[in-house]
Design a protein that fits this description.
- One of its GO terms (molecular function) is ABC-type amino acid transporter activity.
- This protein has helices spanning 44-51, 76-82, 98-108, 114-127, 143-155, 173-188, 200-206, 224-229, 234-245, and strands spanning 6-15, 18-28, 33-38, 59-64, 67-68, 83-86, 161-165, 192-196, 209-214, 217-222.
- By secondary structure, it is α/β, with parallel strands linked by helices.
- The protein has a single domain (6-245), classed as Rossmann fold (3-Layer(aba) Sandwich), CATH 3.40.50.300.
- Strands 6-7-8-3-9-10 form a six-stranded mixed sheet, with helices on both faces. Strands 2-1-4-5 form a four-stranded antiparallel sheet, with helices on one face.
- Strand 4 and strand 5 (67-68) form a beta hairpin.
- Helix 3 crosses helix 4 (114-127) and helix 3 runs parallel beside helix 5.
- The radius of gyration is 18 Å and the shape is globular.
- It starts with 5 loop residues before the first strand and ends with a helix.
- Bound molecules: adenosine-5'-triphosphate.
- The site of adenosine-5'-triphosphate has 13 residues, from strand 2 and helix 1.
Length: 249
């Protein structure tokens, strides 16, 4: 069997006495989409942040394409080129045009020349339907458009995997679909993705595997039809009842 692109083994993470990640094992095969679901505070974002080195882990090991990427002596700049991350708040630089936002990382990390970065950025902006806004500034864009630019900006670094942390949570409902459509396209093109979402129907539709996190552990994982259709654990059922009542499933 092919080696998973991302392998988490026995991951543990605490903030002081608060145990936030409590022994997580997870394999993410290349070209697959894995969704983390669970109540607020269950550790979903923290796990993503541990993966691209924004947080240290205290136990366990993370491998990316077989290479250990947790612990001391890791080049996080190089790592973040390989593992892109998109956040709930788009984090675009307000004083820079869309195009400049997209080229700032490749140019400052010298991963390519300005000319090449601009060419790549325009191609990527075309792909996310934002090429005509290349000269616009972030405050001239809707939230959905800003998030599409943020995704383009990450994709320009040609990452091998994408971490998406609640990328539609800050959006008005009518803008959610345009961002989810883009993520769906990336999945169809074979991008490996680990995402956290409160959009259960989206997780159900797009994921190869869904993991239900509860108090820092993966309490249940499986194909979406199993986790959503016939959850084994009482806590999963209770969570799904709550999201159904809230109209999210
Ligand atoms: N920097 C920090 N310092 C202290 N505690 C933190 C920090 N970041 C997160 N936590 C705590 O860790 C726990 C897990 O937080 P995390 O953001 O990973 O949850 P989550 O499942 O992503 O929640 P949500 O769905 O609300 O985004 C929470 O109890 C949170 O308060």
């Amino acid at each position: 069997m092919a080696r998973p692109l991302i392998e988490l083994k026995g991951i543990g993470k605490s903030y002081g006495k608060l145990r936030v990640i409590d022994g997580i094992d997870l394999d993410i095969p290349r070209h697959s989409v894995v969704s983390l679901i669970g109540a607020s505070g269950s550790g979903k974002s923290t796990l993503l942040r541990c993966l691209n080195g924004l947080e240290d882990i205290q136990q366990g090991q993370i491998r990316f394409d077989g290479e250990v990427i947790s612990g001391l002596g890791i080049d996080h700049v190089a790592l973040r080129r390989r593992i892109g991350m998109v956040f709930q708040s788009y984090n675009l630089f307000p004083h820079m045009s869309v195009l400049d936002n997209c080229i700032v990382a490749p140019v400052t990390t010298h991963s390519c020349s300005r000319t090449e970065a601009e060419a790549r950025a325009l191609t990527m902006l075309e792909r996310v339907g934002m090429r005509d806004k290349a000269k616009a500034f972030p405050d001239q864009l809707s939230g959905g458009q800003q998030q599409r630019v943020a995704i383009a900006r990450t994709m320009i670094m040609q990452p091998e995997a994408l971490l998406l942390d609640e990328i539609t949570s800050a959006l008005d409902p009518e803008l959610v679909m345009e961002v989810l459509d883009l993520v769906r396209d990336l999945a169809m093109q074979g991008m490996t993705m680990l995402l956290t979402t409160h959009e259960m129907n989206f997780a159900r539709e797009i994921s190869d595997k869904v993991c239900f996190l509860h108090a820092g552990r993966i309490l249940e994982e499986g194909p979406p039809e199993q986790v959503f259709g016939s959850p084994r654990e009482a806590a999963t059922r209770s969570f799904l009842r709550r999201v159904t009542a809230a109209g999210r499933l």
